[in-house]
Amino acid sequence: VLVKHSSRTPKCSFHFSDHFRKAGAPDGLVQSILANHSQIASLIENASIAYVSFTGSVEGGRQIQQSASKRFIDVGLELGGKDPAYVSSNADVEKAAIGIVDGSMYNAGQSCCAVERVYVHSSHYERFLELCEREIKKYVLGDPDNAKTTMGP
């Protein structure tokens, strides 16, 4: 298994493969790689690759599919979700804001279920924005190796 994370979060894949090794998986079973788009295309076109699973953008999915179609191998694509949240007229707006901010920032927003858009009833709109701003200001963007950082790349 070759694991290639986003170039913005390459350390994730190294932790992933390291934990497999620590759990007793055979050496080399799960390997992390750093590669650009053309290198990935070459890998997919290599006869030793039998399946590609990709989570990311629609454009990235098109590129993956194009490379895989040259060999007719199976591909699993999870592309460009737009996971919505809704704050209704009878919602606890403070709880909603806290949960929605956490839901959108969880895993730096790269979780497959991260909230990407929010519909708010007009009666809560202004208060919801204020509460979200308060929550977002609590995040400390920075180096994930720094203990004070609450949100990495």
UniProtKB/TrEMBL annotation:
Active site feature: E78
Entry keyword annotation includes Oxidoreductase: yes
Domain Aldehyde dehydrogenase: 1-153
GO MF term (any one): oxidoreductase activity, acting on the aldehyde or oxo group of donors, NAD or NADP as acceptor
InterPro entries: Ald_DH/histidinol_DH (IPR016161), Ald_DH_C (IPR016163), Ald_DH_CS_GLU (IPR029510), Ald_DH_N (IPR016162), Aldehyde_DH_dom (IPR015590)
Gene3D superfamilies tied to this protein: Aldehyde Dehydrogenase, Chain A, domain 1, Aldehyde Dehydrogenase, Chain A, domain 2
Keywords: Oxidoreductase
PROSITE patterns: ALDEHYDE_DEHYDR_GLU (PS00687)
UniProt entry tagged with the keyword Cytoplasm: no
Domain of life: Eukaryota
Pfam families cross-referenced by the UniProt entry: Aldedh
Membership in a protein family: Belongs to the aldehyde dehydrogenase family.
Protein name: Aldehyde dehydrogenase
Biological source species: Hirondellea gigas
